[in-house]
Fold this sequence. Notes:
Layout: E1 19-23, H1 30-53, E2 57-60, H2 76-84, E3 92-96, H3 103-111, E4 116-121, H4 128-142, E5 147-151, H5 157-169, E6 179-181, H6 189-204, E7 207-212, H7 226-229, E8 234-239, H8 241-248, H9 253-265, E9 269-270, H10 282-301, E10 306-309, H11 323-329, H12 360-375, E11 382-395, E12 398-406, E13 424-425, E14 447-457, E15 460-470, H13 475-483, E16 491-496, H14 501-507, E17 512-518, H15 521-537, E18 541-545
Parallel strand pairs: 1-2, 1-3, 3-4, 4-5, 7-8, 7-10, 9-13, 15-18
Antiparallel strand pairs: 6-18, 11-12, 11-17, 12-16, 14-15, 14-17, 15-16
Helix pairs in contact: 2-3, 6-15, 8-10, 9-10, 10-11, 12-15
Amino acid sequence: MASYQLPTLSExxxxxxxxxxxxxxxxxxxxxNAVCWPAQQDMERRITDAFAREGITVTRGxxxxxxxxxxxxxSQRMGMEVFAAIHPDAPLIVAEAVWQYSxxxxxxxxxxxxxxxxxxxxxxxxxxxxxxxNLNGSLTxxxxxxxxLWSQDFTDEFFLNGIRQWIRExxxxxxxxxxxxxxxxxxxxxxxxxxxxxxxxLARQKAILGVFDEGCMGMYNAIIDDxxxxxxxxYKERLSQSALVAAMRLVxxxxxxxxxxxxxxxxxxxxxxxxxxxxxxxxxxxxxxxMYIAAVRIAHEFGCDAIxxxxxxxxxxxxxxxxxxxxxLNNVERPPVYHAETGEELFPGQALPHFNEVDECAGVDALxxxxxxxxxxxxxxxxxxxxxxxxxxTGDGVDDFVxxxxxxxxxxxxxxxxxxxxxxxxxxxxxxFRLGGGTLKGISKPGEIVWSRVFVMDGKLHCDLGRxxxxxxxxxxxxxxxxxxxxxxxxxxxxxxxxTRDQMMARHKANHLNVVYAPxxxxxxxxxxxxxxxxxEMGIQVHLCGDVLKA
Length: 551
């Protein structure tokens, strides 16, 4: 009999009965990790102190790196090595004050047996809440059990009661009574018939999502497997971001300048400067205009109904940001793009839905929204936003919790007060976007919206649907909220209907949610009903959130 040297396997030392281990997933971009580390360090101290007062000693599962100037897990390999040294039954806290790449820690969390608690600080400074929601959505997709908490200073009763329950029971329970399954029989007949007809049309005349490289920034929750997606009538065209760069090289300076001229004529304010490293420059804008033309031409070549550009690892080192491009694509009124050989205008008079950061769940949502809203004669311009932050606001006719919805790209000008004339383009922050490029920035106009999120849970596609009102806040308050988040990005002030802050955080399974306007509250309700019917007919399990479609 052959004799082999077998690997020696030994489990890490178990933690004590009054101990927990803390880990922190970070960015893949070391510049962002270093800049954001002080906020993470402050949050971890507060969490550790809160647990200590309950008799629990929290120890970090990985050390601060003096060379990198941060203590984040910054790669998937590092995450695997960190978790190999943590006992799988240890109570585990995943603390997030920043945007994080979920795949850095998913391998360890997938096989972890002990109770898992994800925690974020309630702050708009860095996208910690956004990172938490992405991680939660990824764990939900994986079928990994977890609990979640959030707090401004980690001394409030909501947080303290949560950690006490987690210490005692290994879980934290939240109120999600605002969610109920769709009862299709209660939908208004005309809208139900429209939604079902559109779904049947999609099943017969199938649609394509053009995906410029999958899996942006560790967003495992934003990838839909083909076996789950295809039964809805939607398929993927897998495209490469390198092909986008190649197509940009075929666009002439003169063609790109026409796009810039079109935007200038409509009043977009480009905030430019001379320094490529810190300013938005005319050269960067011209490159973005080339990307816009190239993206439309590729979408036409492959017959795409919607596209998503990852704009991260790879493309971020080759070209300025895609954000201005994305906002243009999602607007019905946009600069014309012509076929390079025939001169035919491509997608004339239409939005070409773009799903930011190649979030395929948002792509499905945008495609459905586009078809329902067009069929009803409404402006189909849609975007996703990050659930970035929020505070209660009182004054100027508002007395409610007002969310800060914020996204670097994809927001269309028709969402803004004064449209293109109310828009500016400012350089993306250098710590995230080394080669610059401008956003399409504006303040979302007051009005009625439908919000939604497609997500994967229990091996199936689901969709949460709700309503909200976009309110106008005083300029000083808007500026305050911008300065405490990311002032270069478009902003929406949203009041959710019948959903509290903590209910939204407890339920939402993604960093993103989709939003679209309707002409009136009554129109928004009708459009939501038609969208719910279409989704349900596509085989997606629909959930209604808050005060919507109640008899």
